[in-house]
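Project outcomes to date are best conveyed with an example. Our students and postdoctoral researchers have been running inverse folding experiments weekly, and each run begins with a structure described purely in C-alpha cells. The record below, which covers 173 residues, was selected by the lab manager from last quarter's runs and is presented without edits.
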C-alpha cells in the first residue's frame, strides 16, 4: 500500500477512539518502512516487507504496550504499525506472519497490487465509515470535535464572527 493509505486508515480508525492519539498512530503506520531505512542507513541488510513487517511482532507489541503503558502512546504507535502490516497483507506479495513462519500472510487472498484503485477504495471506505461513526456517536454531538469544526454552529452561537466563518466554512479539518 501507499503511505497515504496507511496514514488515512490508521489516522481515521484511531481518531474514532482517541483523536489525540491519531498523530502517534499515523507515525506508527509509516514505521515499518522507515525502520527499514534506518537499518539500511546503519549498514544493515533488510528486504522490504520482511523483518519490519512481522504481523505477530506488531500484534504482541500492541498487546504488551496496551497492558503496561499507562499513557497509551506506545500502544497507539504499535497499532499504527499493525494496521500497516495488515493492509500490506492485502497485496499480492503479502507479509510474513512471524519470524518462525516461512510463508507469506495474505488478507482477502492478497488480490491487489500496490497503487491499484482497489487500495484507494479500501482506504476511502474505511475513512468514510470512521467519519460516519465519529459523527454519529454521542461524544461528538454538542461536544468539541478536535478535527471537525462546526463553523456554522460556532458562528450561530457567537463564538466566531462573520469574517472567520466565511474564511473557514469550507474547511473540514
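After processing, the design step wrote out the following sequence:
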Amino acid at each position: 500500500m501507499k503511505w497515504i493509505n496507511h496514514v488515512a486508515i490508521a489516522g481515521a480508525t484511531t481518531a474514532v477512539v482517541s483523536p489525540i492519539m491519531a498523530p502517534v498512530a499515523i507515525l506508527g503506520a509509516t514505521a515499518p518502512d522507515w525502520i527499514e531505512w534506518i537499518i539500511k542507513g546503519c549498514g544493515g541488510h533488510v528486504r522490504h516487507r520482511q523483518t519490519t513487517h512481522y504481523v505477530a511482532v506488531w500484534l504482541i507489541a500492541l498487546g504488551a504496550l496496551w497492558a503496561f503503558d499507562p499513557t497509551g502512546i506506545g500502544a497507539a504507535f504499535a497499532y499504527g504499525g499493525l494496521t500497516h502490516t495488515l493492509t500490506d497483507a492485502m497485496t499480492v506479495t503479502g507479509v510474513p506472519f512471524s519470524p518462525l513462519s516461512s510463508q507469506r500472510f495474505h488478507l482477502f487472498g492478497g488480490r491487489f497490487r500496490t497503487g491499484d484503485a482497489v487500495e484507494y477504495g479500501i482506504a476511502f471506505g474505511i475513512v468514510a465509515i470512521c467519519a460516519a461513526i465519529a459523527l454519529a456517536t454521542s461524544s461528538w454531538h454538542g461536544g468539541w470535535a478536535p478535527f471537525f469544526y462546526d463553523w456554522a454552529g460556532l458562528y450561530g452561537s457567537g463564538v466566531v464572527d462573520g469574517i472567520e466563518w466565511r474564511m473557514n466554512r469550507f474547511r473540514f479539518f
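The chain has a mean pLDDT of 87. Residues 22-41 form the longest helix (20 residues). The training component of this project remains on track.
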